[in-house]
Every structure is written in C-alpha cells, then in structure tokens.
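User: Please fill in residues for this 192-position structure.
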C-alpha cells in the first residue's frame, strides 16, 4: 500500500481587524441641572470641519546589503537546502529504503520552499538581484518534482522525478551568485 505523503510546510496567516462604527457626530443629553431659561448652547458644526494639510508619510525601503554582507546572508539562507540536498544524495548513493528517501525528499522540498521565500525577503545589492530572482524561480520550478519524489512508491519513479528536479533546479544562478559575491565554488563536503 502506498503511503500518503503530507505536503511539507505550514503557512499561517494572521489577520488583524479593527472594529468600529461611524455613528455620526456625538450628541450630549442636556444636564438635569440646566435651567429652561438659559439659551441653548450650539455645538460646533462638525460637517463644516476642513482638516488642514497633513504631513506626508515617508516609507523608506530597507537599505541593500553590502556585497560582503550579501555573501554571508546568501550562505546562511542557502545552507539548509544544500544540506538537505546532500543528505538526500548520500541516502540515494547508500541504497537506503524508499521510505528513507521519501522522508529526505520531504525535507528537501521544505528547505527549498524556505530558501526561496527567504531569498525574496532580503534587499540584495542590485548587482545580484537578478540572479537571486532566477534562483528563487529555479527553486519554485524544482519544488513540485521534489514533492513527486516524496510521493513516489519506487526508486525507479524517484529517479525519473529526480532527473526532472535536477533539470528544473537550474544551477546557473547559484554559480553566478557565488562568483558575483566572491564566494568559493560549491563544494559538497561543506554540506554533508
């Protein structure tokens, strides 16, 4: 019997809502101590109120990282996915069970999603922003294949999906980023 594979990753959303009602201008009841002989006091007409000019709200974008800081951030954000990939590769090379490979593929898919989301949240130097977007797109293209690997019932099926994941997960943006950020070339030993 094939195992059902749960999609890895939990996305939570927090909704904040404000409650209030526009009940029109406030009215006050006459004070019980007021005399009927006193003339009524008129309240200001709020409908004629014209607010003055307000100060503009200035929102500044976060400053882009320096090239050195970008290199460190890149390594930090990509490490979990690279470790997951190497762990899967090691398990596949050691001819481990289908269940083990399925579990490792789930970890790869989750790390892939986390990486692409994290990469897109950072304000990168303009010299690497194009490659960052390309890497996030490559992650997104490979992710469905990793989920198929996690759901595959045989090693043969896994191998077919792995070929597709490898092709979709284009390594070019990563290699370009390492070069532009003055980082060493990818070395499997750094992640195994």
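Assistant: Residues filled in for all 192 positions:
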């Amino acid at each position: 019997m094939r195992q059902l594979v749960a999609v890895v990753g939990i996305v939570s959303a927090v909704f904040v809502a404000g409650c209030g009602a526009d009940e029109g201008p406030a009215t006050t009841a006459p004070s019980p101590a007021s005399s009927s002989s006193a003339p009524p006091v008129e309240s200001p007409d709020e409908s004629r109120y014209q607010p003055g000019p307000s100060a503009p709200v200035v929102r500044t974008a976060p400053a882009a990282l320096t090239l050195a800081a970008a290199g460190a951030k890149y390594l930090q954000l990509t490490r979990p996915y690279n470790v997951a990939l190497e762990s899967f590769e090691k398990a596949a090379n050691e001819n481990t069970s289908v269940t083990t490979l399925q579990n490792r593929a789930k970890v790869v898919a989750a790390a892939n999603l986390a990486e692409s989301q994290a990469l897109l949240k950072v304000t990168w130097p303009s010299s690497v922003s194009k490659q960052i977007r390309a890497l996030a797109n490559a992650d997104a293209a490979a992710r469905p294949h990793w989920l198929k690997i996690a759901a595959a019932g045989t090693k043969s099926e896994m191998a077919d999906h792995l070929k597709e994941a490898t092709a979709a997960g284009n390594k070019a943006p990563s290699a370009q980023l390492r070069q532009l950020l003055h980082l060493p070339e990818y070395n499997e030993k750094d992640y195994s």
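For context: Helices lie at 67-93, 98-121, 126-151, 155-168, 172-180.
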